Amino acid sequence: MDERDIRLLLDAVRAGRLSTPQAAQRLRHLPFEDLGFAKIDHHRALRQGYAEVIFSRGKTPAQVAQIVRRMLRPKSSRHNILITKADRRVFAAVRRANRGAKFYPLSGAIAIRRNDATPGKGTILVVSAGTSDIPVAEEALVTAATLGNRVEALYDVGVAGLHRLMEHRGKLAAARVIVCVAGMEGALPSVVAGLVGVPVIAVPTSTGYGASFGGLTALLAMLNSCASNVSVVNIDNGFGAGCVASVINRL
Q: Dihedral of CA 115/117/119/125: which sign?
């Protein structure tokens, strides 16, 4: 339930189309609904502008599907639903709950789009250093799109071949927010941030050989970036980057 839903509910009561007991029944599960194994935060969209996102890792397919079914109620609510870190078994269960669910196998994201509005003010550009970083980049891309933003992708433009990045200076300059995903030594966000005057959200990935320490090297490099417009999220956290980019893009 978001602010629009609340306003429509109050208008219906004022106009006499809905009785007070009926309105109370609709509000019964607010601010959260207790399923025993999960407490669904139905007020998330009202507070933050987007619905609660389901992290599926560690949950059974049946649990994820049950959460989705409850989030799909009431029918009047039109917020999009996003599930992260899913597999095909989870997708099969979610698809039975809603035939419109779409699975993105590289990132493990599932999106149920019920609202095509894009309140974001500009374009979020998701840039990846290498092809191996695309799964994390795709999670950021799907997240930002599902939360209501125009998105574009620019993949495999790492510092080992800087000419590949420089060819797309126009795209970099046109973006309102940039998500930059890189493993190995994690240098790309600093380079990108030095070319633009917008926020760059750096995402370290676990891509790399032994001394990359599962993404720790990239994380520390990004935290020590000399570019002042770089902020950093956790290793492989494409969702977090897409979410922060969406919040920035709405300001």
A: positive
Read off the DSSP letter of residue 75: T
- Joined tokens for residue 42: 């139905």
Structure confidence by residue, pLDDT tens digits, 112-137: 999 888 888 999 999 999 999 999 99
Based on the domain organization, do 27 and 58 belong to the same domain? yes
Instruction: Say if 240 falls within a structural domain.
Output: yes
Q: What pTM did the predictor assign? A: 0.87
- What b/e string do you get for 136-175 counting C-beta neighbours within 10 Å, with b at 16 or more? bbbbbbbbbbbbbbbbebbbbbbbeeeeebeeeeebbeeb
Q: Taking Cα atoms as reference points, which of 156, 249, 155, 140 lies closest to residue 199? A: 249
Structural domain total, the chain:
2
DSSP 27: T
Amino acid identity for residue 74 in this structure: P
